[in-house]
Amino acid sequence: MQEFLWDKPVKVGNFGGRERCINGPHEALQCLSEWPEGGWFHERAKNRCYAALELRGDLALSRQAFIAAAIEASFQCD
């Protein structure tokens, strides 16, 4: 599978007191699968990341959606 990376990684905190660096939609999907099922933003982020991996979606939109899901799940992100 071809690796798709965001222009800038997203740093997500509060993983057992450590920060995690997410570099693209594939890593974001894995991260989202480890979180408790979320709300609207969680589902939106999964959909955007899948779309980006299938070349139908925009990488920047998948990044923005992932950030929104992280905020929704009360994780700190940068």
Could you explain how this protein is built, in words?
With 78 residues, the protein is an alpha+beta fold. The chain has a domain of 53 residues. 49% of the residues lie in helices and 14% in strands. It contains three helices and two strands; from the N terminus they run ββααα. It is globular, with a radius of gyration of 11 Å. It starts with 9 loop residues before the first strand and ends in a 6-residue tail after the last helix. The model has no long low-confidence stretch (mean pLDDT 90).
Descriptive tags:
49% helix, alpha+beta, 78 residues, 2 strands
> Helix/strand-derived class?
alpha+beta
Helical fraction equals: 40-55%
Individual helix count: 3
Residue share in β-strands: 5-15%
Q: List low-pLDDT spans.
A: none
E-strand count: 2
Overall geometric form: globular
The ordered H/E elements are EEHHH
Q: What strand order characterises the main sheet?
A: 1-2
- Distance between the ends: 27 Å
Average pLDDT value? 90
From the alpha carbons, calculate the radius of gyration and give it in angstroms. Answer: 11 Å
Q: What does the largest sheet look like? A: 2 strands, antiparallel
Short description:
With 78 residues, the chain is α+β, with helices and mostly antiparallel strands. It is 49% helix and 14% strand.
What's the topology here?
Layout: E1 10-15, E2 18-22, H1 25-34, H2 40-53, H3 59-72
Antiparallel strand pairs: 1-2
Organism: Sinorhizobium psoraleae
Protein name: DUF982 domain-containing protein
InterPro entries: DUF982
